[in-house]
From TrEMBL:
It comes from Rhizobium favelukesii. GO terms for molecular function: oxidoreductase activity. It comes from the Bacteria. PANTHER family: DSBA FAMILY PROTEIN (PTHR13887:SF54), GLUTATHIONE S-TRANSFERASE KAPPA (PTHR13887). This is UPF0413 protein. It holds the Pfam family DSBA. Residues 4-205 form the DSBA-like thioredoxin domain. The lineage of its organism: Bacteria, Pseudomonadati, Pseudomonadota, Alphaproteobacteria, Hyphomicrobiales. SUPFAM superfamilies: Thioredoxin-like.
Length: 211
């Protein structure tokens, strides 16, 4: 069985969903997972103002209540001149996929999420992303230096590959993140849209498999 998750590391509901996907994989190690990055705010240029921060804190509170995951609210409020562009971190996920195709990409994806939501680092900065990505891959048994990661992240082929992911997500009819699909016999069937806990995921997948 193969699942395809369409998500963005800087989407708060995707952050909560990552925990549930990890739980699902722990229950079913036979499940393979592909990740397509969605580009929630890829290419955004507007600076995150106080109203934007408060809006996101409201979402964070709901995700925290649903998932139990921590959020660094002070880190968000302290940001000055921050442009909420998700293309760089999406591209970092693609860079990890290129550097280590056999790695557990969900763990790497969640490392970028933790960097943004808990460590409150700048996940639009290539140097920061290279550090997080190299450490996550190395921890997974795929040794990569920060310089190697940064070089791949900066390459035109990786920029193009991330853009291709964004296009593919739209072609799949994805309008909200996260979205999860079941891939069987060359066909994709939607498991669900938005956050769901592991019990719900298991129920929905079982229903699709039985259909």
């Amino acid at each position: 069985m193969k699942l395809v998750m369409v998500a963005d590391p800087m989407c708060s509901w995707c952050y909560g969903f990552g925990k549930e996907m990890t739980a699902l994989q722990q229950r079913h190690p036979e499940i393979s997972l592909a990740i397509i990055v969605g580009g929630l705010r890829a290419g955004a240029t507007d600076v995150l103002d106080e109203a934007g921060k408060r809006f996101r804190l409201e979402h964070w509170a709901r995700v925290e209540q649903a998932s139990g995951l921590p959020f660094n609210r002070d880190g968000l409020m302290a940001r000055q001149g921050f442009v909420y562009d998700t293309e760089p971190v999406c591209r970092a996920v693609v860079a990890a996929r290129i550097l280590a195709p056999e790695a557990d990409l969900l763990k790497v994806f969640r490392a970028f999420q933790h960097a943004f939501y808990v460590d409150a680092v700048d996940t639009t900065d290539g140097t920061v992303l290279a550090k997080v990505g190299a450490e996550a891959l190395s921890a997974e048994g795929h040794p990569v230096t920060q310089d190697e990661f940064l070089a791949i992240w900066q390459s035109k082929s990786t920029i193009d590959a991330a853009s291709a992911d964004f296009i593919r997500a739209r072609s799949m009819g994805v309008t909200s993140f996260p979205s999860l699909f079941l891939a069987q016999q060359g066909k994709l069937r939607r498991v669900g849209n938005g956050y769901a806990d592991v019990e719900t995921l298991e129920h929905e997948i079982a229903a699709l498999l039985a259909a």
